[in-house]
């Protein structure tokens, strides 16, 4: 004891103490300190962390056990059908991915002729390419509209065929992921210009046009999409003169366009309202006509303001196209649901829905991330 | 009005001119455009109506709502009011409307509670908790609601039958027939106690208002909670005890192949409720989070500097300001939940859409069936927006 005290009080060799870097206290920096601040800051926090870790580990282990360890990836298929006894024997303790292995072509392409599956596959890739190109800011110029027009034409040719040696495939045989992509892409492509017109109409000084747009938007937003789809499927044929028949897919597409336009119009209107009055007045002072003012001054700024909410609305529509299941159109979700109608595969809904959900998730998550990045990028000038 | 008293600004107003018959006159152009657009729109509508009338005649489809008083003959699995297939279509549709309200009201309440909890969890200082909440919100928002509903329904259908039902505690059974819960045998005493409960709330609200008015007058705060406790809890218990305190449990039990007694939550309702609540809660969580973040930190600090307690700061300073940001988007989430409840038709819960759809298939009167669906939803949407607008204007910032 005395020695230690003596040593402590004794003058230390100054040079050594200054040179030797001391390690920082363990509880001030580094992972331990982080854990203390963010996971164990109080006894409540500690309890929450421990309880959540326990549940998380238990569920993760359970999920891995179900999805990988005990899972069955394929079953023998005999002329009598798939032999799913092995899957049934699991009784839900393991996943039966065999249903996905067996039905993945059906889920992706529906009843499209098997040898021609490369065509819808190519179409899906074209759609994804179109999305990626449209997402890049350096391509945001009027020519992009031409790219869309060209791509959608190529997609139409590929799907229908009948030229260039590709056999004709009627629309009733299209299905799966392609239909989801067609419904959402064409829906947005047509709804967006319509929504701009409606938003302008709603802010117009002409009372009759304003009224018309208000009634349209509020009526559509007040009812569920299903009722519009029902209208398209059962009421629409009554509207047309005898002998004219419009395909069911097109009818659903029209319903989705009308629905989407009403919601997009409100987003665009928010952008128009957020624009300072001075912009309108300055354009008027320059003697621009209404359409010049709108096209060159107002719209470019207003749309820029609302890009993030626009992308969020697009995500909503991509998900909402799944509602066509209710009127029996063969999109991704319907194909998944139909795949398990066959007696051999009945009861394996969870595996199918997890797979279909993963496909939807990839698209929506990409869009959502993109929207967040874009928002940060567009707001960069505001944040110092 | 005399010339001398005229506002100088009025003198600068442009003199009113008559409309010139020239394309250069803006007002004339506006009138021409409006007539053109209205003409086209009404022309299209007229064309559609005449087509429809012609088609209805050719196909011999009856029109009008006469079918409402005919016998429906459509079975409904769950109903809040007595109903049998021999009742009329109008009663079947009423059952559908009530079922829609049943899912919408319960869904809105649960989604608000769970969404608020998740929103607060996302702001938690505990890293693990906030990460889990964030992942939940992101995943749930990126999956179609219909897919989630089908998923939950598939899980419920995959549960064991009544004989092997999950039995977490006394009187609770979870099987592929749905959820069974214990209930009490309802007697008059319970109805009176419920009445007492409602009465207690009303009197408490009036009392609290009077107490606040007197505090405003003399500055003395008055305790409301002892009286409130006595009125809201004590009064019903007193009434119930006064009427002999009847208490007979109605506990479900397995008899043969199914359960007897208790209340049943059907798998369809259960799947729909779980799906809707989990989906909407993710959106509500984001709204709540944004609302709380929108209150500037200075507000907390200023209130602390005044010596207010934490609970009081939350209640009197932060929440009223956060609510202003939260209420408008929350309204649209409530509307969304109500409209999304129409997806019930996909899993066989008989809401208004499902019953109208069956009705239009049976009678062939598509226009009337869809008109009923739209009218019901427009009414519900309008009522929710009116109520929430009223609430919003009550809590809105009063500016000078």
TrEMBL record, chain A:
Gene3D superfamilies: MetI-like (1.10.3720.10)
Main location: membrane
GO function terms (MF aspect): transmembrane transporter activity
Cell membrane found in the keyword field: yes
InterPro entries membership: AA_ABC_transptr_permease_3TM, ArtM/GltK/GlnP/TcyL/YhdX-like, MetI-like, MetI-like_sf
Gene Ontology CC terms: ATP-binding cassette (ABC) transporter complex
Entry-linked Pfam families: BPD_transp_1
PANTHER family: INNER MEMBRANE AMINO-ACID ABC TRANSPORTER PERMEASE PROTEIN YHDY, MEMBRANE COMPONENT OF AMINO ACID ABC TRANSPORTER
Protein name as annotated: Amino acid ABC transporter permease
Species of provenance: Teichococcus deserti
TrEMBL record, chain B:
Major localisation: membrane
Pfam families documented for this protein: BPD_transp_1 (PF00528)
Subcellular location: Cell inner membrane; Cell membrane
Keywords, alphabetical: Amino-acid transport, Cell membrane, Membrane, Transmembrane, Transmembrane helix, Transport
GO MF annotation terms: transmembrane transporter activity
Membrane topology type: Multi-pass membrane protein
SUPFAM superfamilies for this protein: MetI-like (SSF161098)
Gene Ontology biological process terms from the UniProt entry: amino acid transport
Superkingdom in the source lineage: Bacteria
Transmembrane regions: 30-49, 103-121, 189-208, 228-249, 269-288, 370-391
Residue ranges of every copy of the ABC transmembrane type-1 domain listed in the record: 97-388
GO cellular component, one term: ATP-binding cassette (ABC) transporter complex
NCBIfam families to which the protein is assigned, alphabetical: HEQRo_perm_3TM
Family to which the UniProt record says this protein belongs: Belongs to the binding-protein-dependent transport system permease family. HisMQ subfamily.
The protein, known as: Amino acid ABC transporter permease
Organism lineage string: Bacteria, Pseudomonadati, Pseudomonadota, Alphaproteobacteria, Acetobacterales
């Amino acid at each position: 004891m005395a020695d230690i005290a003596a040593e402590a009080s004794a003058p230390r060799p100054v040079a050594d103490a200054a040179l030797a870097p001391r390690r920082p206290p363990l509880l001030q920096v580094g992972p331990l300190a982080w854990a203390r601040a963010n996971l164990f800051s109080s006894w409540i926090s500690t309890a929450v962390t421990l309880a959540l870790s326990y549940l998380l580990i238990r569920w993760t282990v359970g999920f891995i056990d179900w999805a990988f360890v005990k899972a069955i990836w394929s079953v023998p298929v005999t002329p009598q059908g798939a032999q799913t006894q092995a899957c049934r024997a699991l009784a839900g303790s393991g996943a039966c991915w065999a249903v996905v292995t067996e039905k993945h072509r059906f889920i992706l392409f529906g009843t499209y002729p098997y040898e021609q599956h490369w065509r819808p596959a190519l179409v899906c890739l074209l759609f994804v390419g179109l999305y990626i190109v449209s997402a890049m800011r350096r391509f945001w110029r009027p020519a992009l509209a031409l790219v869309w027009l060209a791509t959608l034409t190529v997609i139409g040719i590929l799907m229908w065929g009948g030229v260039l040696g590709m056999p004709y495939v009627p629309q009733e045989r299209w299905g799966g992921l392609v239909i989801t992509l067609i419904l959402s892409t064409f829906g947005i492509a047509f709804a967006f210009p319509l929504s701009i017109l409606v938003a302008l109409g709603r802010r117009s000084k002409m009372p009759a046009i304003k009224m018309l747009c208000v009634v349209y938007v509020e009526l559509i937003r007040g009812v569920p999409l299903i009722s519009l789809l029902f209208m398209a499927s059962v009421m629409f044929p009554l509207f047309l003169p005898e002998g004219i028949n419009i395909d069911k897919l097109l009818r659903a597409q029209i319903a989705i366009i009308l629905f989407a336009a009403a919601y997009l119009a409100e987003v665009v209107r928010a952008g128009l309202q957020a624009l300072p009055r001075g912009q309108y007045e300055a354009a008027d002072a320059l003697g621009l006509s209404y359409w010049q003012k709108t096209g060159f001054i107002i719209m470019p700024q207003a749309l820029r303001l609302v890009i993030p909410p626009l992308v969020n609305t697009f995500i909503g529509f991509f998900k909402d196209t799944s509602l066509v299941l209710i009127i029996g159109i063969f999109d991704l979700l319907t194909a998944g649901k139909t795949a398990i109608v066959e007696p051999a595969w009945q009861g394996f809904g969870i595996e199918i829905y997890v797979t279909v959900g993963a496909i939807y998730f990839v698209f929506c998550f990409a869009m959502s991330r993109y929207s967040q990045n874009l928002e940060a990028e567009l707001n960069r000038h505001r944040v110092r | 009005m005399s010339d001398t008293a005229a506002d100088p600004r009025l003198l600068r107003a442009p003199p009113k001119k008559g409309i010139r018959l020239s394309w250069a006159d803006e007002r004339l152009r506006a009138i021409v455009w409006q007539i053109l657009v209205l003409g086209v729109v009404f022309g299209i509508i007229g064309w559609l109506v005449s087509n429809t009338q012609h088609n209805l005649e050719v196909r011999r489809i009856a029109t009008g709502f006469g079918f409402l008083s005919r016998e429906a003959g459509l079975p409904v699995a769950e109903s809040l009011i007595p109903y049998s297939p021999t009742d009329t279509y109008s009663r079947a549709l009423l059952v559908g409307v009530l079922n829609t309200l049943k899912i919408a009201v319960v869904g809105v309440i649960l989604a608000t509670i769970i969404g608020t909890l998740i929103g607060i969890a996302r702001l938690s200082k505990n890293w693990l908790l906030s990460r889990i909440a964030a992942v939940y919100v992101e995943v749930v928002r990126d999956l179609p609601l219909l897919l989630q509903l089908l998923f939950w329904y598939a899980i419920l259908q995959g549960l064991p039958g009544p004989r092997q039902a999950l039995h977490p505690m006394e009187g609770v059974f979870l099987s592929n027939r749905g959820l069974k819960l214990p209930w009490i045998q309802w007697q008059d005493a319970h109805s009176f106690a419920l009445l007492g409960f409602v009465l207690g709330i009303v009197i408490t609200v009036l009392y609290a208002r009077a107490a606040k008015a007197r505090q405003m007058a003399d500055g003395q705060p008055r305790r409301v909670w002892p009286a409130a406790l006595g009125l809201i809890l004590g009064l019903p218990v007193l009434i119930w005890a006064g009427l002999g305190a009847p208490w007979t449990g109605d506990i479900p039990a397995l008899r043969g192949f199914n359960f007897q007694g208790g209340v049943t939550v059907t798998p369809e309702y259960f799947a729909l409720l779980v799906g809707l609540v989990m989906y909407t809660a993710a959106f509500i969580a984001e709204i709540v989070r944004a609302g709380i973040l929108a209150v500037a930190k200075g507000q907390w600090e200023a209130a602390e500097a005044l010596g207010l307690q934490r609970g009081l700061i939350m209640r009197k300073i932060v929440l009223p300001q956060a609510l202003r940001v939260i209420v408008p988007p929350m309204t649209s989430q409530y509307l969304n939940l109500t409209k999304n409840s129409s997806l019930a038709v996909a899993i066989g819960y008989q809401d208004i859409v499902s019953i109208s759809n069956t009705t239009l298939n049976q009678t062939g009167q598509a226009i009337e069936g869809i008109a009923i669906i739209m009218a019901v939803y427009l009414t519900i949407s309008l009522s929710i927006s009116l109520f929430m607008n009223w609430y919003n204007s009550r809590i809105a910032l009063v500016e000078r």
